[in-house]
Design a protein that fits this description.
With 188 residues, the protein is an alpha+beta fold. It contains four helices and twelve strands, in the order βββββαβααββββαββ.
């Protein structure tokens, strides 16, 4: 039997996306953005707010990266979501993360995370009800340890974490339990 709880948009689990961008002087900033998703085969959508330092950087430089946070770097991923780049001048140093400049866009690639999408700002959606940044993915980098024998990303090797919107926990992604566009064929 189901029980009514308060009305809430609790789509879970959510990916833990670390969004990074340079300011106009080349200083990197990163933020933890649980409200990010693929919006096409070569697009990402970030539902973040205007006041974030990273948002301001993206709007100024027109480029950003989105990394998928992993278990090994969970504390740093959480930290960049706690302190605001608007208030802390040494946020990058405190996080312990390291960056190199993308060779495809003017944005920092965070070395520690196993998967990073390098994006150009494609569109900003700013309405009464939502603010979103849409990025065109121009390149994706993946740590070789997260690839299978055919050179494809193996999500079980990413050790990615997800965000629990019910109790605000981080969880490691687990084992593969089925095959999309396959297991349901038995019902056709």
């Amino acid at each position: 039997m189901k029980k009514d709880i308060k009305a809430a948009a609790l789509i879970t689990p959510m990916p833990v996306c670390i969004v990074a961008a340079y300011d106009t002087e080349g200083k990197p900033n990163a933020m933890n953005a649980a409200w990010g998703m693929s919006s096409g085969m070569d697009e990402v959508a970030l539902f973040i707010s205007k006041p974030h330092k990273t948002t301001k950087n993206i709007l100024e430089t027109k480029a950003f990266t989105v990394s998928i946070a992993d278990v090994a770097n969970m504390a740093a991923a959480d930290y960049v979501g706690i302190d605001s780049g608007n208030n802390v001048t040494d946020k990058w140093e405190k996080s312990g993360l390291h960056e190199t400049t993308s060779s495809h866009v003017n944005a920092p690639v965070i070395e520690e995370f196993p998967l990073v999408m390098e994006c150009e700002l494609e569109e900003v959606i700013d309405t009464e009800y939502t603010f979103a940044i849409i990025g065109k993915v121009v390149n994706t980098q993946v740590d070789e340890k997260a690839l299978d024998e055919n050179g494809k990303v193996d999500v079980t090797k990413l050790n990615a974490i997800s965000f629990d919107t019910f109790q605000f926990g981080y969880y490691a992604l687990g084992e593969k339990v089925g095959q999309a566009w396959g297991d349901g064929k038995a019902l056709v």
